[in-house]
Amino acid sequence: MCDACRRVSGVGTDHAPKLGMGFWSTDQMRDAFDSRDMGTVVRAYRYHPAHGHKPLPQETVARWLGTVTQSQLSRIESGRNRVEALDKLIHYARALRMPAELLWFSLPDDVDVIPIPRAEDVLALPGGPVVPAASAPTGSAIADSLMGTLDFYASTDNLVGSHSLLEVVPPQLRFIEELLGKARGRDRQALLRVGARYAEFAGWVYQDTGDLQSAMQLSATSYDFANEADDLALQSYVLMRRSNIASDAGRSELALRLATSALEQAESLSPRLRALALRQQAHAHAQRGDDVACARALEEAFVLAQRTPGSGADLGHYCTPEYLEMEAAHCWVELGKPNDAIGSLRKGLGEWQPEFRRDLGLCLARLALAHAVEGQAEYAVQVARSSAVIALETRSSRIQAQLGRVPGVLAAQDALEESRMVGRLVASLRLN
User: What is the pLDDT of residues 278-313, one digit of tens each?
Assistant: First the structure.
């Protein structure tokens, strides 16, 4: 670091140094200002040669800015999140002491700013006790409340699908990111974990509605939070979810690598969390046509799924044997073994829990496809109708995608009337 930054970079120091015009007037910095993108300017600031051989750490600059986390700053610099609101642009410029003449926006006249005390600060009253200077609720309490809300969202998703949550969950995630910009210590750790859970769930919402690009981006954000929180179980779960998104996108090699990475710390994971990652390995093997590796992964997953979750907080609690039967059936269909798929699905449906209604629709769609591949056209139509009712209620793109495969399979077997019937079902879902 340069001498100026070194003097103010210690723990607890929350303001940037004042740097001379020689720092700001280099070609590198002027080009950054000409881009009119604050992320580009901040990145040029961190990588300025005046700092020495290494750039300023993002954690340091995020602390100086005071309103963002290191993960948020990374996304701002990469262009994934742009700083466009004028009040935020002004804050960044003032926090890093940028010269007004280089900015593409105007700074308001300077006014005296009265510092707002932090929640952990105390105030000694004259002749009285020492009391907290601020009485805002702690980050840990807010995190607990947000997790309760997330449980409600998950229940809603299982019953009626994720479409109704598109306008709800992303704003909650932005709220958590704002809280993280000010949180410290245990509060920050609690908010990082809840932020990872919300980002992962937001990724699922986009995945179920068919926006796989947004789903993968939000899952990457979730992993950043889980990594910063140093939560191995949460990191594994998010890697498994990213693998699942890659499978939906048809990227089997990426899906396999991510699922394998999710199992790297197997000894730190609950049995059902390991079962989920193995299930995802099986999906990837099925897409690659490797039936032996697929069967091996599923067999191990079933053994682990038989065990009772250690607590309600187990991220893999929903990976029951019945759930795995549905997932195994998907693999058997991919591998051209529809009879095995039908057997798995019937076994799973016999013990199905009613609160997982959207997944029931997906299970029925896979069963309809299995009947179609097996040449049982009448059964395929009957099951497809039941699946379509749930698909209409939940507006799940994953159910629609599975049902959308059925008409082509039936047509290839000369079951033309049945193919047209299911085709009309699928078309009506798309219209609605």
Answer: 999 999 999 999 999 999 999 999 999 988 765 557
CATH of domain 3-102: 1.10.260
Which of 51-55, 94-98, 295-299 has the largest mean confidence?
295-299
Please check whether residue 391 is in contact with residue 403, taking contact to mean a CB–CB distance below 8 angstroms: yes
**CB 429 within 8 Å of CB 388:** yes
Give per-residue pLDDT as tens, 182-235: 888 888 899 999 999 999 999 999 999 889 999 999 999 999 999 999 999 999
Burial track 220-256 (b if 16+ CB lie within 10 A, e otherwise)? bbbbbbbbbbebebbbbbbbbbbbbbbbbeebbebbb
Where are the domains positioned within the chain? 3-102, 139-230, 352-432
pLDDT at residue 5, as a whole number: 62
The pLDDT tens digits for 374-405 are: 999 999 999 999 999 888 888 888 899 999 99
Q: Which of 333, 266, 330, 350 minimizes the C-alpha distance to 300? A: 266
